[in-house]
Amino acid sequence: MNFTEILKSIDDFVWGIPLIVLIMGTGILLTCRVKVVQVRKLGKALKFMLTNEEGAEGEVTSFGAFCTAMAATIGTGNIVGVATAVAAGGPGALFWMILAAFFGMATKYSEGLLAVKYRTIDDEGHALGGPFYYIEKGMGASWKWLAKLFAIFGVGAGLLGIGTITQVNGIASAVKNFADPDSQHMISLFGGEYSVATVAAAIIVAAATALVVIGGIKRISSVTTIIVPFMAVMYVVVCLAIIIFHIKEFPAAIAEIVKSAFGLRAMAGGALGAMMVAMQKGVARGIFSNEAGLGSAPIAAAAAKTKTTVRQGLISMTGTFIDTIVICTMTGTTLIMTGAMDQGLEGAECTAYAFGQGLPWSQSTGAFVLMLCLAFFAFTTILGWDYYSERCLEYLVGKKKNVLLTYKWIYILAVLIGPFLTVEAVWTIADIFNGLMAIPNLIALVALSGVVARETKEYFEKEAHMKIGA
């Protein structure tokens, strides 16, 4: 058994039925306990997302914390991840991705609420919070080992999985598809042959990462508040244009997604197996994309300048809605409507085909537009996950500046070497760390669901009384 096969075996074990049940079950439990807040209060959440709370403690504005979380959330999972999920699990994977995201909104709401409730703010105004603190302070000191376990997996996810290698790998792939699609300009490096475009992308992204992450959360926040809204709108406009241009294929695409989700296109006796593959790939790629239940977003939420736990929970919730229910749905739909998923292509190449064929422009123009979108998406994810993984490390080792600075440079090095690793191994490693990271966080969310329910009830009852009094 080779290394790739070993990784796949570990991935299949981590992302087996128990974890899928835990993720979906936690989302369903929290949805019930907060009385479907993701539907009832979505309008209010979107309004809060665009406004800041005055006179509150924290390091960055609520919008800045939201953009930092969205920067880490919207990345290659929205482009490459959806393509790999649909390729491996069929169009039905998109259905399970959306369903998991719906319940995941309640999960993300709970994460944001608990992050603010149990965070710590030192004399310098430095905020630290997230699963490690709501596990330790909410569940009790005897559970500190679980908090440390989460932090260890968080460092691994940032350094070896979702934070660095997968993101820069996606950027380099998109740059090569545009600048050197026929691999005509190759150089020897690390014992292999690589395109000059791939090498150039690695160096440029690593250098840009270094310029931002050395400045810490405030610099990351200032960069992401500019890039995140711009990149999301640009990508949605292009996908929407493709859907409108192929509107006649839309009903058939929706039917294909639903039939595939329940294995209705599989041969007799294979329906359950096909459905389970679609579910596994959809849920796994969904959590990779929107990070609901992963425990990463509450680390950014804890830095927000806010006095209200529920308010930050609502803001956090909108991230899953925008990331998966809007952006991933659009990506998956364009892949199916343009026939990209039937071309036998992998990752970014599949989405590039959809962008090239989806509108009346050349394939190279579509590849260029996708390259820009992917570059922005993935770069901001690299920035956001540097912050997440540093906070995990800080929880483990304390405020040892030399250790934290050394980690920053190791993180930048991981970005530099990311494009030279194989796509399959990279995504498998990322999936493994995501799953391991989610387990301690989901245990905490279930244990503290009563706290979430109580805080939610008290907030909205108080709000109702204030309206009556006015």
List the helices and strands and how they pair.
Layout: H1 3-14, H2 17-33, H3 37-40, H4 42-49, H5 62-73, H6 76-89, H7 92-117, E1 120-121, E2 127-128, H8 131-139, H9 144-160, H10 165-179, E3 186-189, E4 192-195, H11 196-213, H12 216-245, H13 250-261, H14 271-290, H15 297-301, H16 309-337, H17 348-358, H18 363-397, H19 401-417, H20 423-447, H21 449-469
Helix pairs in contact: 1-20, 2-7, 2-20, 4-16, 5-12, 5-16, 5-18, 6-14, 6-16, 7-13, 7-14, 7-16, 8-9, 8-20, 9-18, 9-20, 10-11, 10-18, 11-18, 11-19, 12-16, 12-18, 14-20, 16-17, 17-18, 18-19
Describe the structure in your own words.
This protein is mainly alpha-helical. Helix content is 76%, strand content 3%. The chain has 21 helices and four strands. The strands form two sheets. The protein has a two-stranded antiparallel ribbon. Helix 1 runs parallel beside helix 20, helix 4 (42-49) packs across helix 16 (309-337) and helix 7 (92-117) crosses helix 13 (250-261). The radius of gyration is 21 Å and the shape is globular.
The total count of helices amounts to 21
Query: Rg to the nearest angstrom?
Result: 21 Å
Shape: globular
Task: Let me know the number of strands.
Answer: 4
Give the biggest beta sheet: 2 strands, antiparallel
Strand order of the largest sheet: 1-2
Detail the poorly predicted runs.
none
Distance between the termini: 70 Å
Helix proportion range: over 70%
What's the SSE pattern?
Answer: HHHHHHHEEHHHEEHHHHHHHHHHH
Structural class: mainly alpha
Mean pLDDT: 85
Give the amount of beta strand, in percent.
under 5%
